[in-house]
Design goal:
This protein has 286 residues and is of the alpha+beta class. It has 2 domains: 115 residues, 2-Layer Sandwich (D-amino Acid Aminotransferase, Chain A, domain 1); 157 residues, Alpha-Beta Barrel (D-amino Acid Aminotransferase, Chain A, domain 2). Helices cover 27% and strands 31% of the residues. The strands form 2 sheets. Strands 7, 8, 9, 10, 11, 12, 13, 14 and 15 form a 9-stranded mixed β-sheet that branches. Strand 7, helix 4 and strand 8 form a beta-alpha-beta unit. The relative contact order is 0.15.
């Protein structure tokens, strides 16, 4: 994270930024957040992420402390202040302080935090490669809250911890019916018969902003784009498995449960196409 953050309308040194101990984001995970890519000092995908952010605010019956134009200006100013060339912007909103208990009456005003930081390593010249493990934690079937990026991510935290303790980079999360849904911090997709597949909406995955970029580039390259249902074992029958997240783009999955996964040449082509799209978008904005 950079030296500065933007908290409730003011730039504050990261080490001095504070919210009240009665803030419900701290007490209950009562909030929403988004994270997106900074490329060539430009914030990529802001509109799509803000739309999902607003959907989360609406579902949680919350108001943002900043308007979209105000938040975007603050985020851009923070990118410059923290000297972020290649990195990320993350913003989060909580319901703020309120009476004791779960009730939301009398809460607020909410807290609004923007962070911006640089990637710790140079950008790679090929897709990152991750080892996966099937998580022992399961997701509920699709609900309205599964479609927004809410701050109550304890299940994903525990699934990630299990993966790291097992020597893997990321868990594969399934729903209660056993279908693959997503990873802890990424969407999941697979390639088979010249087609890019992703889980059905009914599986319960968070709709991925970068996953839509991937789908667009896949169609442009001549791949079909479909939804389907698979179990973790079905992933071994594909031609390649990939993950997508807005900060890192396309990541190639190389193994699952310590067994090698098929590797497709399409993964590199898709990674390259998505990276070029990000660079081109930054160039138009700069």
């Amino acid at each position: 994270m950079g030296q500065w953050v933007h908290l409730n309308g003011e730039f504050v040194e990261s080490s001095r930024a504070m919210v009240p101990i009665s803030d419900r984001g701290f007490l209950y995970g009562d909030g929403v957040f988004e994270t997106t890519r900074v490329c060539q000092r430009q914030i990529i995908g802001w509109k799509a992420h803000w739309a999902r952010f607003e959907a989360g605010l609406s579902l949680l019956r919350m108001d943002s402390r900043l308007s979209e134009p105000g938040a975007l200006k603050a985020a851009n100013d923070l990118v410059q202040r923290n000297n972020v060339s290649e990195g990320y912007v993350r913003w989060s909103a909580t319901r703020g302080a309120g009476p004791r208990g779960y009730g939301i009456q009398g809460c607020g005003p909410g807290s609004f935090l923007i962070q911006a930081g640089s990637f710790p390593q140079p950008l790679p010249s090929a897709p990152r490669q991750w080892k996966l493990i099937t998580s022992t934690w399961t997701l509920p079937l699709a609900t309205p809250i599964s479609r927004v990026k809410h701050s109550s991510k304890l299940l994903h935290v525990l699934a990630k911890a299990h993966a790291q303790e097992s020597g893997a980079d990321e868990p594969v999360l399934c729903n209660q019916d056993g279908w693959v849904v997503e990873a802890a911090s990424a969407n999941i997709a697979w390639i088979r018969d010249n087609c890019l597949f992703r889980p059905m909406d009914s599986a319960g995955a968070l709709p991925g902003v970068f996953q839509e970029i991937l789908a667009f580039e896949a169609r442009r390259l001549g791949l079909g784009v479909e939804t389907s249902q698979v179990t973790p074992m079905d992933l071994f029958k594909t031609e390649g498995v990939l993950l997508t997240l807005s900060t890192l783009g396309v990541v190639e999955a190389t193994e699952l449960d310590r067994q090698p996964l098929p590797l497709s040449p399409w993964t590199f082509r898709l990674w390259e196409a998505c990276e070029k799209a990000m660079q081109a978008a930054a160039g138009r904005m700069g």
